[in-house]
Structures are given as C-alpha cells and as structure tokens.
Amino acid sequence: MHTRSKISILQTTCINCTQTNCIVNSYANSESNRKFIESKKILKCKKGQQFIMEGAMVNGLFIILKGTAKVFRTGINGKEQIVRFAKSGEVIGHRGFGTEEHYPIGAVALEDTLLCYFSKELLQEALLNNAKLAYDMMLFYANELNRSESKVKTISQMTVRERVIDSILYINRKFGDTDGYLNLVLSRKEYADYAGTTEEQVIRTLSTLKKEGLIRTRGKKIGIYNIDNLKAEISQHNFFLDS
DNA sequence: TCATTAATCGCAC
DNA sequence: GTGCGATTAATGA
C-alpha cells in the first residue's frame, strides 16, 4: 500500500518560522513557551510516505510546516475514505489526542513535506499553561467537528455528480489554482476516496463535466472554467464550508 | 528513451 | 450504479 521507509528527524525551534497560519507560531517568541517550542521536532517525509499509521499508539501531534497530506480512514472492505486534505499550518493527528490511545486515522504526504512534531507530554503541558493556545485549539476542534458533520450529509444526500463537484470546489477553495488548473494534483482514485465513490464514477463524471464545458483536464490536472456554474449545481444543498 | 503507472471507456451485470 | 478488463495516455527513472 503505502511506503514506510524511515523518516529523517531534525531538531528546530519555531523561532524565525515564517509560517503565518500555524496555531502555535504566535507563541514562538514568548519566553514562557521556550521549552515547548524548543523541544519540538521537524520531520521530513517524502511524497507518498505515511507518517501516521491507522491504529498506531498516539504519542503526539503533527503540524504541517510545508507541503500537503491526505488524512484517511480505512473502511470495512479495505476502502480508503479520505477525511480531508491538509496544507501548511494545519494540525494532523489531533483526534487521537487526549483520551484516545490509538490514532483513528492514517496520514500520508502528497508531496515532499516537512512536519512539526509535538509530543503528547509537551503539548499537554503547553495547553495547561497557555490559555490562548488552549482556546485556539478548541476553536480548531469545533471547526473540525462542524466540518465532519457536514461531510456526512454531503456523502449521504448528494448524487455522485454533486459530490464530485463538491470535491473539486473544496480543493479549489483550499488550495487555489494557477494558470487555470488546481494547485493540488490528485489522482482520480483520491477524488473518489474523498467523494465516497469509485474511480470510474469520478472519471465518468469528469468527462461529462468536460463535455459540458464546465471543467478542463490535462493529465491528472483539473481546471475550472466557470466556478459559479459549478457552485450553482450544489447550491441547493447549501453546504459551503471553508476548510 | 522505455517501462511503469494511471486514466479512460466499453461492456456485462 | 458498479466492477472488470482492454486500450491509451502520462509519468518518472
């Protein structure tokens, strides 16, 4: 399935980190958090490398420094359900944190990615000592919960076509596009795993959309011609969530 | 370049 | 709508 070669570890602090949307970044210059930010680690993983094994013991939490990753859960018949895609500054592995002993999800890097890693002990201590960090984390959890509840509706009530459109819009919203093509390149299988369908359905839907002049494709890349037309198709379900 | 991997489509169910 | 398999296109070593 996924490669599991060794992950190199570097030691770095958050000081001078250029990441602006990182949840812990704003504490980097505070004296009281010196220990916290100095004892984190940076992991470097290659494209396709899995850094969280589903069911593994929880020992910390990751934040993407640079790169992208997919977060998934494996279903009963071994099918992957992609929960979300994460980009720089986002937290991964948070659901296993706290009372859970094992990660309920797996995560693999979609490109060469740098991850900041905070051990469980380290983070617990920081949360107890820093109300602002705890509050921001709480907001993050609340937002995540809201999003996953909405995703249940998306999958159970929308048609395949609508789910595929929703997925494309999600990628566009989150990763943007350049030169008319989405910045994050995903395989058809990954779109299927996110939209809750099969690879064939995605391919068929995409070629239909292409014929209708709504999108364009070039290899794995997907481009949107008219975002409003796509949005109009799923607007009746009115779930537009930013994340 | 060539071999591997992914996308696509037709067809049966 | 689903899943298999043949064909074609894209990718990467």
Describe the structure.
- It is a single chain.
- It is built from 7 helices and 13 strands.
- The chain has helices spanning 34-38, 120-129, 131-157, 160-175, 188-195, 199-211, 227-234, and strands at residues 8-11, 41-45, 50-52, 60-66, 69-74, 80-86, 91-92, 106-109, 113-119, 177-178, 181-182, 215-218, 221-224.
- With 243 residues, it is an alpha+beta fold.
- It is elongated, with a radius of gyration of 19 Å.
- The strands form 4 sheets. It has a 5-stranded antiparallel beta sheet with strand order 1-2-9-4-7. Strands 3-8-5-6 form a 4-stranded antiparallel beta sheet.
- It has 2 domains: 8-151, Jelly Rolls (Sandwich); 157-241, Arc Repressor Mutant, subunit A, CATH 1.10.10.10.
- A hairpin with a 2-residue loop joins strand 10 and strand 11.
- It binds a DNA duplex (13 and 13 nucleotides) through helix 6.
Gist of the model:
The chain has 243 residues and is an alpha+beta fold.
SSE topology sketch:
Elements: E1 8-11, H1 34-38, E2 41-45, E3 50-52, E4 60-66, E5 69-74, E6 80-86, E7 91-92, E8 106-109, E9 113-119, H2 120-129, H3 131-157, H4 160-175, E10 177-178, E11 181-182, H5 188-195, H6 199-211, E12 215-218, E13 221-224, H7 227-234
Antiparallel strand pairs: 1-2, 2-9, 3-8, 4-7, 4-9, 5-6, 5-8, 10-11, 12-13
Helix pairs in contact: 2-3, 4-5, 4-7, 5-6
The structure holds a DNA duplex (13 and 13 nucleotides).
